[in-house]
Amino acid sequence: MFVAVYPPAPSSALTAALLGAGFQPVPVDDVAQVGTREPEQGWVAAVVELGDDVGLGALVGRKIREEHGIGVLLVADRTVTADLGEFDGFDDFVLTPIDVAELRVRLGRIGSKAVLDSAGDEVLRFGDLELNTSTYQASVGSRPIDLTYMEYELLRFFVEHPNRVWSREQILSKVWGYDYFGGSRTVDVHVRRLRAKLGESRASWITTVRSVGYRFG
Q1: Phi and psi at residue 76, in whole multiples of 5°?
Q2: Is the pLDDT of residue 116 over 50?
Q3: pLDDT 10s digits, 181-212
Q4: pTM of the predicted structure, to 2 decimals
Q5: Which residues fall within 8 angstroms of residue 32, CB to CB, at 6 or more apart?
Q6: Cis before 7? omega within 30
Q7: CATH (one of 3.10.20.30, 3.40.50.2300, 3.40.50.2000, 3.90.950.10) for 2-111
Q8: How far apart are CA 217 and CA 206, in angstroms?
Q9: Taking residues 77-97, what's their average pLDDT?
Q10: Could you tell me which residues come within 8 angstroms of residue 29 by beta carbon, excluding any fewer than 6 positions away?
């Protein structure tokens, strides 16, 4: 899962936190490089680390969001938090020292936000995955993927609840319903099919947590 990081020489603490949260940071020199350096899987989000010039960092964040349509997370020192209310154009922020678990959750939420497309349909997005909840269409990298109804519902559940570990029993209850009497193997079968349909480069979005269940993101 790739995130664009500005400035191009982020602090070692931010880099370590992103890696620890399961994200691959890609430094960018300017707003234009967010487009030219975008990986095949797409960006989960952009991360802008504010330095002494808070206004400049917030401006870059706004431009990234406006020009490239991805969510932006600001990283701010606790001593400058009073200034953050003056700026808009970003989706969320974290304060230093960075908590890895919090960073994972906040980036996951940004990456899976629902948006309205030009037809007014609600679309869930994670990286380059799009789920149109009105038409039940799904695509990755602009390539349509053919999902059964329950495969779609399971993937939708994962996208709407990223970064949390769910047991097979919890997934059965929430996706299939309380009155479903099938075994937990049903979840494993559907996860295997989803991974195959998402493709090799994106299959790792669904992580198996041994002896527990699955985590998405």
Answers
A1: -125, 145
A2: no
A3: 667 789 999 999 999 999 988 898 999 998 89
A4: 0.56
A5: none
A6: yes
A7: 3.40.50.2300
A8: 7
A9: 69
A10: 8
